[in-house]
Automatic annotation (TrEMBL):
The keyword Signal does not apply. The keyword Thylakoid does not apply. This is Cytochrome P450 306a1-like. Residues 193-212 are annotated as: Disordered. Heme binds at C137. It comes from Hirondellea gigas. Pfam families: p450. Residues 194-211 have a biased composition (Low complexity). Keywords: Heme, Iron, Metal-binding, Monooxygenase, Oxidoreductase. GO terms for molecular function: heme binding; iron ion binding; monooxygenase activity; oxidoreductase activity, acting on paired donors, with incorporation or reduction of molecular oxygen. Its cofactor is heme. Belongs to the cytochrome P450 family.
Length: 225
């Protein structure tokens, strides 16, 4: 699910960049106020939080290839002849990491999305995680709202930190990623953190070994007071 995967990348980037996470938390907690709750009407005030989210979407587009388009007529673009009827596929990930469009594109810099003169979100024509053109994702606005609401509620109650061996979560270009049980274990972290009142019901599904693993991994999630 694209929104869920994007949210995981956002949380991972914040865990790796603690200074950014604290700035986001301060903004979110200020907007949330005494109710400790962010609503839809509050989202426009979360400028830096939006910028942090957008930077993660730029770095890690979950749909790296765009929706196929077709050339309706013969074209010549930068010396390349494209006959009518040719299928065209936007390379979203390539555009997001193109040095001709972004300064230091491989670095995590949320401030690139903030206009310093207005302190508002700055739009980039080269930012297209929801695709581009008339066939762009129709659910973009909904996805942005959902991710922001979930993100704010998580950060209001938890501080994301990485385990000591976090380097294994950031494979280099020569690494082949294989499916493992690590993903399901990470899911149990959040289940355990939020299911203390349902422990009796969960005991039938989680054995003692799983519980010890969960406890060890939960040490990497700090509950905010």
């Amino acid at each position: 699910e694209t929104s869920l995967t994007s949210l995981r990348w956002i949380l991972l980037d914040l865990a790796q960049n603690q200074d950014v996470q604290e700035l986001v938390y301060k903004e979110v907690s200020t907007v949330a106020g005494e109710q400790n709750l962010v609503t839809l009407s509050d989202l426009p005030q979360l400028v830096f939080t939006q910028a942090a989210m957008m930077e993660s979407l730029r770095l890690h587009p979950v749909v790296p290839l765009g929706v196929p388009h077709g050339a309706t007529k013969d074209l010549v673009i930068e010396g390349y002849h494209i006959p009518a009827g040719t299928m065209l596929i936007p390379l979203i990930a390539e555009v997001h990491h193109d040095t001709s469009h972004w300064t230091a594109p491989d670095e995590y810099r949320p401030h690139r999305f903030i206009d310093p003169s207005t302190n508002q979100i700055r739009r980039h024509s080269s930012f297209m995680p929801f695709q581009t053109g008339r066939r762009a994702c129709p659910g973009e606005d909904h996805a942005r709202m959902v991710m922001l609401l979930y993100l704010t509620q998580i950060l209001l109650h938890y501080k994301m930190i990485l385990p000591g061996d976090y380097a294994k979560y950031f494979p280099n270009e020569d690494t082949t990623i294989k499916q493992s049980n690590q993903y399901s274990n990470d899911e149990k972290i959040f289940d355990a953190a939020n299911s203390t009142t349902n422990s009796d019901k969960n005991n039938s599904n989680i054995n003692q070994q799983d519980n010890s693993e969960i406890k060890q991994k939960c040490d990497n999630i700090q509950i905010r007071s």
